[in-house]
């Protein structure tokens, strides 16, 4: 848990540095921003991997229902109210076949999701073996149709192809690519959010991406936009989960986590939206 | 207390150090002695260059105390605005490099983020007097008053030091210039930015050759940048450049026109036990310097100084910890941006001692031959007359001894990034934020 808090804190600090580098005198420093983005990526990997490995270990304990809820709230791309049970069968092949030419970062992004899916599959099978289905999870699980999974996958491939075409044109500053990112993220966030704050999230994601436009070449925009989506989805995930889950324990740990994010999120959203 | 460095001859005696300090208007951003050591140039954040000259009190006794006094001050770079990219170009002087002296005038290269300039510094101590058509103040004389003809003569005048820009090397760098280095052939020099290294001829300003280009086709795949570059002191075909990943590449310009393929790659495997979020940042090399004899090179990363033998690529021959007590503070240093500080390093004249800066106005001298090191402080106190330079100690944790300073009391705003060592004598220049300290060993 401490690792998660620490990783999250480092991610916030890193985002702040990237944000501030825009207004620094003398232009954006490529070296510093590269280093910050590396730290951001490391922190994010720790944040996600530590989280999921912890969740799978606890899958057999009594608190497994709670863990599922936390996992749901932390999930990036999937609707927060959906469950992994239905998606266990969703194959990894369609994803990979859709992006045969994806850039490295896009690939890494999807690999993370593939890892996530494999973790899900393991956890799901464990869950089924335990014969302890959570009624709330089942009911919620029927909500998400398979299409929801596939559609977000298409937009990154579109954006990645567009990026590759645009980067040779600009002199290292891909003005076109971030715009495509914005579009793809809009699609993704529209898919994900089933609560009423989707317009707000879209604005946030779009603004954060436009903030990254001027970063130009060195910014790992897919990773950063994922972070924004994490924050966003966790917030909305908490809201939708209030109705879905009856367990109180889940809300405690989930809420603590989301509260921390909320505290950070509010000044962020103000800053990003203002920008 | 007397600590001797570098052996009996040419050693550095830390007692009886004479210190002079010069307060500067702006933050010093680079310090460099010329090849004879007589001149010391500093560049600052405001684009100014200040040159100090060594004055020997008594020329017949060279061991007498000599001071460095201001010799010339000029504005090298001005802030510019790139209208196309809506970017302001800082006037801060990133590097100064002297050219070897060929005639009475001195030449130096100074660079900011985008433009390199060649400056000529010359003395004028005579002026012509006795013109026929002009008065002494320059006004033209009335032709009707001229009745005789005279030959103008040169008369002595107060010494005037003039700095004039002779060449401007512009528009060759998309990214920020971090290094310049004059070739031993005295005709060419290189300039390096984050992704490219260009080779220039000192006489030609309208073109340069790109000799290294590490920009990936897709900028999203960028993983490392160039952080420093230097020509070999004797071999005019050899140069090195360091990267943000902690590697150094040695290139031979005879091999091909584009030196993207290195001749040698110097890299030390990372210690997995030290892995943290910030491992990549602290392995980024901030400075690389060849030894004077050309057999070694020194690199500085955030926590250590490494000496490499040019014939051994897989690991350095010596590693010195500069401030290992900071390793547990990396997260705080990341937050306050100190982890991005780029410390420089330098060799003494006979390559026996190396020096680098730290925080709290501390700087470190590392003796390679005697395997000893010392931490000293550049402060007002050390500049008092008859003051002995007292070695400082930092207490990493646990019980703090007397005279030790604890890590948490260090002032991270007081950093020494730039140091320089006289090429022949034991005179060092240490730049704190707004002060230039010149320490000179006083030999009794």
Distance between the termini of chain B: 15 Å
Q: How would you sum up the global shape of chain A?
A: globular
* Rg on CA atoms of chain B, Å: 24 Å
Order of helices and strands of chain A: HHHHHHHHHHH
Can you characterise this structure?
- The complex is a heterodimer of chains A (275) and B (444).
- Chain A is an all-alpha fold and 275 residues long.
- Chain A is 75% helix and 0% strand.
- Chain A has 11 helices and no strands.
- Chain A has helices at residues 2-22, 30-57, 64-74, 93-98, 104-130, 135-141, 146-166, 176-192, 198-213, 221-244, 248-274.
- Chain A is globular and about 60 Å long.
- With 444 residues, chain B is mainly β.
- Chain B has 2 helices and 34 strands.
- In chain B, strands 3-34-33-32 form a 4-stranded antiparallel β-sheet, with no helix packed on it.
- In chain B, 42% of the residues are buried.
- The model of chain B is unreliable at 6-10 (pLDDT under 50).
- The A-B interface holds A 6-7, 10, 13, 17, 25-27, 29-32, 34-35, 38-39, 42-43, 46, 103-105, 163-164, 167-168, 171-174, 216-218, 220 and B 82, 85, 87-90, 92, 113, 174-176, 178, 194-195, 215, 217-225, 227, 244, 277-278, 280-281, 284, 331, 334-335, 337, 340.
- Chain B: InterPro entries: PP2A_PR55, PP2A_PR55_CS, WD40/YVTN_repeat-like_dom_sf, WD40_repeat_dom_sf, WD40_rpt.
- Chain B: One of its GO terms (molecular function) is protein phosphatase regulator activity.
């Amino acid at each position: 848990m401490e690792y998660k808090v620490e990783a999250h804190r480092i991610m916030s600090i890193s985002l702040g540095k990237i944000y501030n580098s825009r207004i620094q005198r003398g232009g954006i420093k490529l070296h510093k921003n590269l280093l910050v983005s590396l730290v951001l990526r490391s922190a994010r990997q720790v944040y996600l991997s530590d989280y999921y490995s912890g969740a799978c270990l606890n899958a057999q304990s009594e608190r497994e229902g709670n863990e599922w809820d936390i996992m749901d709230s932390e999930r990036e791309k999937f609707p927060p109210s959906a469950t992994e049970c239905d998606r266990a069968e969703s194959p990894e092949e369609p994803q990979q076949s859709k992006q045969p030419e994806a850039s490295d970062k896009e690939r890494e992004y999807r690999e993370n999701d593939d890892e996530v899916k494999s973790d899900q599959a393991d956890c799901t099978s464990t869950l089924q073996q335990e014969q302890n289905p959570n009624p709330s999870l089942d009911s919620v699980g029927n909500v998400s149709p398979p299409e929801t999974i596939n559609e977000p996958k298409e937009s990154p491939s579109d954006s990645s192809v567009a990026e590759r075409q645009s980067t040779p044109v600009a002199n290292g500053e891909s003005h076109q690519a971030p715009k495509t990112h914005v579009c793809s993220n809009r699609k993704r966030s529209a898919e994900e959010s089933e609560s009423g704050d989707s317009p707000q999230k879209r604005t946030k994601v779009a603004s954060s991406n436009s903030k990254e436009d001027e970063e130009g070449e060195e910014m790992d925009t897919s990773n950063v936009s994922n972070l924004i989506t994490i924050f966003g989805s966790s917030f909305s995930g908490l809201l939708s989960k209030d109705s879905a889950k009856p367990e109180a324990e889940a809300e405690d740990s989930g809420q603590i986590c989301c509260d921390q994010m909320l505290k950070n999120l509010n000044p962020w959203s103000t800053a990003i939206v203002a920008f | 207390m007397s600590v001797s460095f570098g052996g009996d001859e040419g050693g550095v005696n830390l007692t009886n150090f004479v210190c002079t300090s010069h307060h500067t208007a702006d933050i010093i951003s680079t310090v460099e002695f010329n090849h004879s050591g007589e001149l010391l140039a500093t560049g600052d954040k405001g684009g100014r260059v200040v040159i100090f000259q060594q004055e020997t009190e008594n020329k017949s006794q060279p061991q007498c105390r000599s001071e460095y006094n201001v010799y010339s001050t000029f504005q090298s770079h001005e802030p510019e605005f790139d209208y196309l990219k809506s970017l302001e170009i800082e006037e801060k002087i990133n590097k100064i490099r002297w050219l070897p002296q060929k005639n009475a005038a001195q030449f130096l290269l100074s660079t900011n983020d985008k433009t390199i300039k060649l400056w000529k510094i010359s003395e004028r101590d005579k002026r012509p007097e006795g013109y026929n058509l002009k008065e002494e103040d320059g006004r033209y004389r009335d032709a009707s008053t001229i009745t005789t003809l005279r030959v103008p003569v040169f008369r002595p005048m107060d010494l005037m030091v003039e700095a004039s820009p002779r060449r401007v090397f512009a528009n060759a760098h998309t990214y920020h210039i971090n290094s310049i280095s004059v070739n031993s052939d005295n005709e060419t020099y290189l300039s390096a930015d984050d992704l490219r290294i260009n080779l220039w001829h000192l006489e030609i300003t309208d073109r340069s050759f790109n000799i290294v280009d590490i920009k990936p086709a897709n900028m999203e795949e960028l993983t490392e940048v160039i952080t420093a570059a230097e020509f070999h002191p004797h071999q005019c075909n050899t140069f090195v450049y360091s990267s943000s990943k902690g590697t150094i590449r040695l290139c031979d310009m005879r091999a091909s026109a584009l030196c993207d393929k290195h001749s040698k790659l110097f890299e030390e495997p990372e210690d997995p036990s030290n892995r943290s979020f910030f491992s990549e940042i602290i392995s980024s090399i901030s400075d690389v310097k060849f030894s004077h004899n050309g057999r070694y090179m020194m690199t500085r990363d955030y926590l250590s100084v490494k000496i490499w033998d040019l014939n051994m690529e897989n690991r350095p021959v010596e590693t010195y910890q500069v401030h290992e007590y900071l390793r547990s503070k990396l997260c705080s240093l990341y937050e306050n941006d100190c982890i991005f500080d780029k410390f420089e390093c330098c060799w003494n004249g006979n390559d026996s001692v190396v020096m680098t800066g730290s925080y709290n106005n501390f700087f470190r001298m590392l003796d390679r031959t005697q395997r000893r090191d010392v931490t000293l402080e550049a402060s007002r106190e050390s500049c008092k007359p008859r003051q002995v330079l007292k070695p400082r100690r930092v207490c990493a944790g646990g019980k703090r001894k007397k005279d030790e300073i604890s890590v948490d009391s260090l002032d991270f705003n007081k950093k020494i990034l730039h140091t320089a060592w006289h090429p022949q004598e034991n005179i060092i220049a240490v730049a704190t934020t707004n002060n230039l300290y010149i320490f000179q060993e006083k030999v009794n």
